[in-house]
Amino acid sequence: MNDDFLDELEKSEEKFKVTLKYPHLFPILEKCSNAETRKTMNVAADTQCLEANVPILEEVVVLRQEEAKILGFENHAAYVLAVKMAKNAENVLSFLKSLNEKLSPVFEADLKSLLELKKEETGDAFDGVINAWDFRYYHTKLVETKFQVDEDKIKEYFPIEHVTEAMLSIYQSVLGLTFKLTENPHVWHESVIQYDVYDTTDSSFIGHFYLDLHPRDGKYGHAAEFGLSKGCLIGGVRQYPVAAMVANFTKPLPDKPALLKHDEVVTYFHEFGHVMHELMTTCNFSLFSGTNVEGDFVETPSQMLENWCYEEDVLKLLSKHYTSGEPLPVTLRNQLIAARFADSGLLYKRQLFFGQFDMTIHTIQGKVDTGKIWHELRRSVAGIPAPEGTNGSSSFGHLTGGYSAGYYGYLWSEVFSADLFEEFKKGGVLNKELGLKYRKTILAPGGSKDAQTMLEDFLGRKPSQDAFLAQL
Questions:
Q1: Choice among 271, 278, 299, 311 that is catalytic
Q2: How far apart are CA 281 and CA 283, in angstroms?
Q3: What is the per-residue burial (b if ≥16 Cβ within 10 Å, else e) of 47-64?
Q4: DSSP SS3 for 206
Q5: Closest among 381, 379, 375, 385 to 133, alpha carbons compared
């Protein structure tokens, strides 16, 4: 592990203290050459709160079955999907199966590449398997060797203060907005910052947002956007929307600013996209306001905006070396873009696994054995077995956090996000006219229009899978 990572850790005698939060877990799984250490972290992550959470989850699944029956639905998935784009479980399972078949050849090629890297590194100790704790490590190796992408070098060009400033500037320009830092804000922690948002054209007030970017004890451990107040009419008076983006990016050191890995920059763009979706609403009813859209469409706007982080013009704006002030060099920029879809077969199959697990437990009847289903699907769908004794559903927060029978939506949404982005590729990713059209047709309506209608309004045609499949 590099010195920057170790310098951030608490140390007791000869040992370092690590947690299962992302700023500790992912770097170890990606960079630690000691397989036993990676295994220890992976097993710990997939067994956290297992004894407490698994019985609760399995009880919740049964209660959802009973609730669906009472309401006249065959199962929980049928109940949830009735108001989504997919409409029913059959359509979702067909979508997952079709995508799984298309991904299989890509997956096999990706797996072969990682096995070759492992064999080269381990020699006579090669076991012929990519274990759960091997994937991120050898994926990182592949990106570094095949594409010469050095994340430690690249993150030097993404100090969080500059990324924040540049990202906010891009959103303001493309969506026709003005952000003003709130003076003396009332916030829940001293590190949280608040902005007021105005329409650039007429200076009308739109709403507020908060940025809560660094980890601390007791804080939510992932990255997410939270709508704190919905934009709507109450008694004929406009209630302005308020949203918070919460993340756990690495804290700055005394002699070095907080530096973001490129995938953290992508996460930043994605979650802030949800903030914009929340604030751009023109709905009168809170039920349809902001991100209150069909659940399998809610990720589409933010997934579309992730593409900005791989565009040359945007990377120039986002990057600034923390000492020299230089933007990301052309060579590193090209390598980063070329490596974007490295191991896409493995990565998408992993997403398919989560979606299939979610749909499986919410379509079967009776008592559910989540551990058995988890292991079976990890082998048959993800293609990489889970460690014995683990059950990652114990910390699969989506299952009880509003995404039950809905995780497939990440992939479902990505199909449409690729189609939307094709229009920006044609017209220019920083095109203000196109940005305003996007704001008006995709962000502003919220759930007051069906997602299919919004897509057709922006595209001028029916959406297609072609752009997404062309990436694979």
A1: 271
A2: 6
A3: beebeebbeebbebbeeb
A4: strand
A5: 385
Q: 9, 1, 47, 12: which is closest to 215 by C-alpha?
A: 9
Q: What does the mean pLDDT of the chain come to?
A: 95
Q: What is the mean pLDDT of residues 44-59?
A: 96
> Would strands 242-246 and 205-212 be described as parallel, antiparallel, or unpaired?
parallel
- Cross-strand partners of 233: 238
161 carries an active-site annotation: no
Mean pLDDT in residue range 176-189: 97
Burial 418-436 (b: 16+ CB within 10 A, else e): bbbbbbbeeeebbeeebbe
Q: How far is CA 167 from CA 126, 161, 171, 204, 315, in A?
A: 44, 10, 6, 22, 10
Compute the distance between CA of residue 283 and CA of residue 340 in angstroms, rounded to an integer: 36
* Helix, coil or strand: residue 225: strand
Burial of 274 (0-12, 13-18, 19+ CB in 10 A): buried
Give the closest residue to 88 by CA, choosing from 290, 352, 356, 363.
363
Strand 193-199 relative to strand 177-181, pairing: antiparallel
Tell me the pLDDT band of 341, cut-offs 50, 70 and 90. Answer: confident
396 contacts 354 by C-beta, under 8 angstroms:
yes
Give the C-alpha separation, 397 to 222, whole Å: 10
Q: Which two tokens stand for residue 257?
A: 């600013």
Closest CA to 153 of 167, 143, 164: 143
Structure confidence by residue, pLDDT tens digits, 214-266: 999 999 988 999 999 999 999 999 999 999 999 999 889 888 999 999 999 99
What tokens does 265 get? 């920059």
Q: % helix / strand / coil in the chain, to the nearest 5?
A: 55, 10, 35
Virtual torsion, Cα 363, 369, 372, 377, nearest 10 deg: 20
Helices (runs of H) and strands (runs of E) counted in the chain: 19, 9
Q: Has residue 472 got a pLDDT over 80?
A: no
Over the stretch 263-300, which tens digit does the pLDDT of each residue have? 999 999 999 999 999 999 999 999 999 999 999 999 99
